[in-house]
Here is the input.
Amino acid sequence: MNTAAIVAGVLVFSVLLGVVRSRHASRHRTLRIGLQIAAAMLLYFSLFPPTLPERFASDELIVLTPGATPAQLAQLSPAASVVALPGADAGRAIERAPDLGTALRRHADARRLRIVGGGLPARDIDAARGLVAAFDAAPLSRGVVELEIPGNVSAGSVWRLGGRVESVDGGRVELRDPSGAVVATRALDAQGRFDLRAAAKGDGAVLFALNVLDRDGARIDAVTVPLAARANVPPRILLLAGAPDAELKYLRRWAADAGLAADTRMMLSEGVTYSEGTPALDGETLRRADVAIVDERAWAALDAQSKKALITAVRDGLGLLLRVTGPLPAAVAAEWVELGYRLESTEPPSAVRIDGLLGRDDAALTFSRRAFAVTSPDAASLLRADDGSTLAWSRNLGSGRVALWLLADSYKLSLGGASAGFGTLWGDALAAVARTRGAASPSLPLTARIDERAVLCGVTDAAAIESTTGAHSELIVDATTHCAAYWPDMAGWHSLLNGGMRWPFYVRSRDEAHALAAASTVRATYALVGETSSAMGTATRDRPLPRWPFFLAWLAVAAALWWLERGAVAQS
Amino acid sequence: MSTAALDHLRRTAAQRKLAIVALAALPLVVAAAVLAARIGGSIAAFVVVVLALAATAAIAWRAWCSVDEGWLARRLDASAVQMDDSAALLFHDGAALSELQRLQQMRVHACLAEINLDLRPAWPWPRLFVACGVALVLLIAAATWQPSARSDTEQRSATAHNAAAATALVRTRIAVEPPAYTHVTPSDETSLDVKAPEGSRLRWSLRFDPEPQAAALVFHDGSRMALTRDGADWHGERALNASVLYRIALDGVPPPADDRLHRLDAIADRAPEIRVLEPEKTLTVLDTQQKNWYLAFEADDDYGIAAAELQITLAQGSGENVKFKEQTVALEGEPVGADGGVKHQRYRHRLDLAALGVAQGDDVVVRLAVSDNREPKPNITRSASFILRWPAQASQESAGLEGVVQKTMPAYFRSQRQIIIDSEALQSEKPKLDDKAFLARSDAIGVDQKILRLRYGQFLGEESETHAQHAEAAEQAADSAHEHGGEHDDHDEHAHAPRAGQEAATFGKEGDIVAEFGHVHDIAEAATLLDAETKATLKSALAEMWQAELHLRQGRPDEALPYEYRALDFIKRVQQSTRIYLERVGLELPAPDEARRLSGERKGVEDRSGSLAAATIDDAPLARLWSGLQRGDAADANAIDWSGAEEWLRAREASLPDALAVLAAIDRTRRDPACAECRDSLRALLWPLLPAPAATGAARATPDAAGRAYLDALQSDAGGAR
Here is the structure.
């Protein structure tokens, strides 16, 4: 016999006693008896509240993660299975779990997870894979929530820093160089996005600082921007030109300053050439060169054998950049169709701007594009103007690449004082076209943070990490993926020592760039949301009604009884 | 009565004891208080004084209490034999005594009244001296306590640690005596880093512990100034002419604890600043009623303004014929501001235009030059020039076109008019002249007309006629034939050709220049100097001139006149159309004519070869230092080329914004390679100075076997699809 039955028995007995005693009452007899029965029933229900059947998703587990807001907690269905992970600010009634794996073991029937709050920490990502059906994300914190830092910046080039700032309306960002001077500043757009450009200096690792300022200029957030610039091995170029022009002058000047070995042959007149190096179109020169730059006049002057040698060299890996400097002779156009580019003369050239590409908002430099309509089904865009029109294309040909260049006057950049922009423009274009050289650079952890797992890929077996203090730790490299992990316990610049080269990467301290870390957790959790294996199953569960209405009703009935009984006693 | 005497004795003795205690305690309390104040500050001194006074009070209380009846009785017995060792009886009640005791008591009372006793203890001079000696030792300890090690325990321990290895700078004083002209009061600095006006004299007065054998100040530019010793102080003096870094170098003792480079900043004397209150514009146009020109200036200087003078230039005349008259007026300033006007002055001047002799078409140019009181060479600032212009009479020349219009044929046009005038004059004089003279003069006018025609012909490329002199010898016969009559007019012109050539040297030289450099020596149609329309007009003019010449040579100037007028009219038109407007900007090159391209003579033109040299970057030492600093560990500090960077900076001190700060940071990092903060600050200072290398892109990586196979498969697929 359980407690409820005993209590029920006692109550029935009491009611019977009360009925017997009230039987002879002169006034309110029926009322008193009725109230006594009601009081007994209400007392029973306040002790053992009645239950209602309720449907719920039987295989869904709601996981509260750190950052869950009270508003989100209030929306939770009372019948659902809810667990709270460490750091989640949930009520005492909610079940706690030390990690998601434990929670899943406890709720073995859970097939679907609904994540509520700031997202799953890295620890629980693997446990949740394939199970997350929905993610009810908490609002992002104020500050920089997205940051695109280039992993591989060439020394002296213009680099781009993009990102997004959350909930700072009308604010702006400013980028400060290591000496504290502002090198770039930009107002945030409606979505809070920004796009900054700055010039890198020589080989080495430096820390820039990105400050987010609100409308009044007060600092909202500050993020360290680590930048590791590398000096590259410059390609060897073979430059064939039909005539000297301004573009060539500045291109050659840049090539000489940047250490590009250039074999140049420029025609000065019929049968008269100016040459530098050994610009012969023999097998040796073509094998040695990484990229050949040829304009349409030089092309027209090449004999059939040279053209054949050149195209063979391209198929073997040489890069070929075709410059258009004027009207295209029909014969040349026909031969270039063979190389994958069909050019048709169009309207006079329109002015294009490439300031956005190089981050020069106030320069107001206009450039001209050669007036050709280019048809090339398999060519990729190599250079785009701010208005989206393509200025240069590149396509594969055998092992090599063939590019077409229609920008007529990039030298204006050099003249306008933007030699870094000129170098970046040509350096990137030539690097994209030139022969492949060297091994792939390892992929470094760009968002490494202290006490978080950092993954490095493309490393050799003998790779090691040199920490801030100069201590070396060997990496254990997975033989199939060529990846390794590192667990930094110190903030600052670390270096990956890989194949005799040093690759610096930066480890953030724990409390730095808080909004960025929170946002990356949110993104990682969103990435988990997807198809789950099971369809949603529902079941019913009895849920007890709340006790307090019964208790209050019992109190009222008892008070009324007391009043009636008091009157009866006074009368007797 | 004897009781009163006893009380007196006891009181005086007790007072003497108190005085002794006080005298001994006073120096000790004072010395302890001073030492406590030196070590622990005023609060410690207060606590020590309170404790010491409490102890003194306790001792004094014991001393006072020790003077009781027993003590008095012992002292009386000891000091007076007459007491018979019975002084204790004096303090007993007579009733309780035996008869014998009472008798003896009376005797002692009597004796006490007779003798004059002094029971006060003697001054314990040796002990007082010992107390004073202890106090003196405490005071010396207080004086030698290091004041630098105040309160901050960390700093105290650090000092204690360094004290063994470093020389302490006990006293630092730099007397700054700014140049007298600045009127800046001399000051004493207690820091080794000083900012002072340029030209100040700095006098160092330093005291070291331990004492060095020799001391010197070593400056970053390599100069060295030995300090002279004067007792415990070391003195040195130097004029501050430029900002400089220095360090104290000591002989025979360890280096000072703060051994970084100290900085002396010379604050340069700024040149005065001039603000012009009146006139408001650079160019003022004279009002016809205006008699005076009012000028007002304000000048500011950081130390004081010495003099101001107004330079007045009167420019008279126009065109090529402009005369200048210059004069200088020294201005007296009115002081502005609270400092008596030494630094801030206002100048007003009234220029009396009549006295200056300004006439219509003249310009008055004024300019204020203000010099400050800098010595030895004052800074002089000159204001912009302000012009008062009395406009000239409206000129005939069309304004605004000078400079862009080039008149290509200046001299000839009047010449055609002259021919007309001559012809008309000749016609009017015809009745007075005989036929021969008339014909000769008409012929002369015809010759002038021919010269003119030849001149214009040059512009059309008719050079055969301009070189008529070539045929001179061949025409000698015709020349003689001319003397017979006027029938052979065709030959006559050749006779005058040499004359025409001589005249050409002086007449219409501008045309010569154009003819020499401008036109093309081939057919008229290809002459590129003039456009087709102008050429047509010019040809018409030449045709008219032919006709006019014909009639003039025939002695009929009246018939020549209509042609002359028409020629003049055409020439006028040419004059108007041959104004060449030079475009200021822009150049539209025509597309090359491929058919004609590269068809020229290329004899002797050969292939060339050369090479471009890369730009030399002279900032290499800085770049090396920067990359050396990248590595965090101190071990490779020796590998860093510090000296190269320092030399580089020293060579460019004048052109760099703050080379001294970089030099100081280099020195600091070099001396303490383990200091991460020093490295960071040095890198931050170096960053703006670093060269930016020319950018190159990162090369594409060579694909591995899998990538190669994938690429090949893609290519073969694409090939198959095609």
